[in-house]
Amino acid sequence: xxxxxxxxxxxxxxxxxxxxxxxxxxxxxxxxxxxxxxxxxxxxxxxxxxxxxxxxxxxxxxxxxxxxxxxxxxxxxxxxxxxxxxxxxxxxxxxxxxxxxxxxxxxxxxxxxxxxxxxxxxxxxxxxxxxxxxxxxxxxxxxxxxxxxxxxxxxxxxxxxxxxxxxxxxxxxxxxxxxxxxxxxxxxxxxxxxxxxxxxxx
Length: 202
Ligand code: HEC
Prior knowledge:
Elements: E1 16-21, E2 24-27, H1 33-54, H2 62-78, H3 88-94, H4 98-111, H5 113-116, E3 132-133, H6 139-148, H7 164-177, E4 191-192
Antiparallel strand pairs: 1-2, 3-4
The site of heme C (HEC) has 25 residues, from helix 4, helix 5, helix 6 and helix 7.
């Protein structure tokens, strides 16, 4: 039973544990302290990682960063666009500008998706993809709602967060959501209104 006779040089300092399975015994040789420290540190790190990157507390997800960079780029581009009028015609025309739509989509995902869902299907905020609207009769009313809010602030006012031009193209982007198929549509609210093209040349 003694393990020290054959190779006395290999005798470990650790005593044997006193359990035995199928004649096999093991030394009491626990995982070293540094290993536990690394394990504990990585568990702690994983919580911080989860909170920052998964729940986007600090706006550090790749999507958020990308949206911010696109907005910055657009603000730069707007220098050459001049002032967009918040009227029906300009908003309808902006819907056909792919660059405007890309940027406005990034703003929408950053500022609006928390309440209206990323695809506009609605969460706390209304479904922006269906044919019914509560505060909108004409496409330019979308600009007004974005600017001043609605329903006593349930829909916040965005005039301090976005420039006039940004709100014009956001309105165009919201208008473009109409008729799309969101993954989880909220039930329609408000009344059905005429198609946007009724606002053209009005
Ligand atoms: C805090 C939640 C919240 C956020 C964020 C939010 N909305 Fe809203 N939004 C609402 C609610 C609630 C309504 C419905 C208001 C009502 O009942 O009249 C609404 C209504 C609207 C409407 C009018 C729809 C209609 O049928 O009359 C538009 C357009 C709109 N939001 C666009 C936006 C845009 C664009 C953004 C981002 C810049 C945004 N919202 C961000 C909550 C929000």
